[in-house]
Specification:
There is one protein chain. By secondary structure, this protein is mainly alpha-helical. The protein has 3 domains: 38-87, Orthogonal Bundle (Arc Repressor Mutant, subunit A); 89-132, Arc Repressor Mutant, subunit A, CATH 1.10.10; 134-209. It has helices spanning 38-52, 57-66, 71-83, 89-104, 108-117, 122-129, 134-148, 157-170, 175-187, 204-207. Helix 1 packs across helix 3 (71-83), helix 4 (89-104) packs across helix 6 and helix 5 (108-117) packs antiparallel against helix 6. The chain starts with 37 loop residues before the first helix and ends with a helix.
Length: 209
């Protein structure tokens, strides 16, 4: 449309002539995120990541590094998220230990390894796994073995011992604890062969599959 002077009148809002083309920095949801404002990009990336599930500071730092967010900007954003409680490695570690110990039956050694892999500092991980004591580990190992026993009724004792020990070892249980729990469980089942000679002296590594 033209006015009386013959000049084309500019429309209000976004016109075809002023609309910005999407860039690689645009978010997956279509929102425009220009790297000219890396702090905003970093903040939005973190908030989206935290929407799905809690994350450790290191996990978010790795995400920002992958998206080429400057390190100083990433640190500032992560510090701010920690200040408002959106990043809390101690709470993350405590929740992780509770969930994985009860749900997967993992021992303290395995729990520490998983937390370390997620970037939780060793002292924070060590404090979190203190919620699991020796009695908790033994009881959990006993339940794991009891659930597995019905599928091993046709096996000889040596084979059953090897498989049960291997299962507990993969979940982080020490050889001594695993050996005691397995021995007690097999002794209580009458369908198995006589006790394995020298069971207490067996090398736990030799029993792994």
């Amino acid at each position: 449309m033209t006015d009386r002077s013959g000049e084309r009148r500019r429309g209000s809002g976004n016109s075809w002539g002023t609309r910005r083309r999407p860039t690689p920095a645009d978010g997956a949801d279509g929102a425009v995120e220009e790297m000219a404002d890396p702090e905003s990009v970093a903040r939005n990336l973190c908030l989206r990541a935290l929407t799905g599930a809690p994350k450790t500071r290191q996990q978010l730092a790795d995400l920002l590094a992958q998206r080429d967010v400057p390190e100083d900007v990433a640190e500032a954003v992560l510090d701010r998220l920690a200040e408002v409680g959106l990043i809390d490695d101690e709470a993350f570690a405590q929740a992780w230990v509770t969930s994985r110990q009860s749900g997967r039956g993992l021992a303290r050694r395995a729990l520490k390894a998983e937390l370390r892999a997620k970037g939780v500092e060793d002292d924070v991980a060590a404090t979190a796994v203190m919620a699991v004591d020796d009695n908790d580990e033994r009881e959990t190992a006993r339940r794991l073995v009891e659930r597995k026993l019905p599928s091993m009724q046709r096996l000889d004792r040596v084979t059953a011992t090897r498989r049960l020990m291997g299962m507990l070892a993969r979940k982080g249980y020490s050889g001594g604890l695993a050996a005691g729990v397995v021995r007690d469980a097999l002794d209580g089942v009458g369908a198995y062969d006589a006790a394995v000679p020298g069971f207490d002296e067996l090398d736990e590594d030799a029993l792994l599959p």
